[in-house]
Amino acid sequence: MAGEWRSATLGDLVELKRGYDLPQRLRTQGTSPIVSSSGVTGYHSEAKVPGPGVVTGRYGTLGEVFYIADNFWPLNTTLYVRDFKGNDPRFVSYFLRLLTSYLIPIRQPYLESIATISIKLMLVFQVI
């Protein structure tokens, strides 16, 4: 297996976007998961984002990363991956879990601030 190292920012790998407001009074029972910073907290009749998706908390539960298979509604307490930039969503969920586990001791209040942290990645190419 051959590979090379390159420096990149998290923003080079995925685009994160803040979730959407959905006050309790506007929620109607449905099948689309409502995802907060602590995970799926209910279901709504409408989805804002097509699945599969990856969601994490903007604050409070930094380090919790959720893979959502179906269309969903990410709440404003979250960041979700708007653009996977060609990366597999399941891989991105594992990668963000690993990345945030290293950042937890820093006690970073907002995950948005890590989008500019430079990281080194091992790019592995498989010969077929």
Please give a structural write-up:
- The protein is mainly beta.
- The protein has one domain (14-114): DNA methylase specificity domains (Adenine-n6-DNA-methyltransferase TaqI, Chain A, domain 2).
- The chain has helices at residues 10-13, 89-103, and strands spanning 2-9, 15-18, 32-36, 39-44, 53-57, 65-68, 73-74, 78-83, 118-125.
- It has a four-stranded antiparallel beta sheet with strand order 2-8-5-6. The protein has a three-stranded mixed beta sheet with strand order 4-3-7, with no helix packed on it.
- A hairpin with a 7-residue loop joins β5 and β6.
- The longest helix is centred in the C-terminal third of the chain and has 15 residues, at 89-103.
- It is elongated.
- The N and C termini lie close together (11 Å).
- Residues 123-128 have low confidence and may be disordered.
